[in-house]
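Morning - 2'-deoxycytidine-5'-monophosphate inputs below, output right after.
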Amino acid sequence: MDKGLRITVDGPAGAGKSTAAKAIAKRLGYLYIDTGAMYRALTLKAVHQSVDLSDEEALDRLAAGTDVRLARPTRPGGPYRVILDGEDVTEAIRSPQVNAAVSQVARVPGVRAGMVDRQREMAGDGRVVMDGRDTGTNVLPDAEIKFYLTASFDTRVDRRYQEQRRRGFEVDREAVARDIAQRDEIDSHRAVSPLRKAPGAIEVDSTALTIDQMVEEMLEICRRAADDQGPASGAR
Ligand code: DC
């Protein structure tokens, strides 16, 4: 039986991954898996417990004793919930403190190994859209469709700046730019599963595209792939 498509969306912070991945999942009726949210949840716990972020063993131990889950929305169209040790942390993981620390936590090999196992388990039989940094290169290298989303640095900074303000955080644009530059640097140069365009990935530059244009362009690519897959993929 056809299991439907597995779609991965990778790229740097602010490229529009989560907006695109969520919209595509909704249109196709697929499960959306935000892998960054899992690293963010663990980071929130590390920050709360004042764990030394340069202490890899401490972060390994913390990850081993932590339960991170992604829960489907409780109401139609509502947000996916992020549950950390039974507590809903959906909003808290988007804070500037977590933004500033998450790349340091996500570069630890033991932390990544546990998260990647969970992510593959969640992807199960397909019909998923997964977004992150290594979903096409490492988590689901056999995915039927892989996207690599980019945008200019200024565009990415503007988007994150607006997003943070909408969420009610007091931030200045310079600080957001520094944070994104630092995360780009760490995410792209870490030893394990650095941010890379996966072999066979389709690159979409969202700098000059509206959200609707970006989503339509990506959905068209999914539809074409679905035609090759047969009717059960649902991407039409
Ligand atoms: O997509 P995001 O901004 O929520 O991701 C937060 C951080 O988590 C990102 O800076 C790097 C890390 N991350 C990762 O290393 N691997 C993933 N698959 C997803 C995110």
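Note: The two ends are 18 Å apart (CA to CA).

O.
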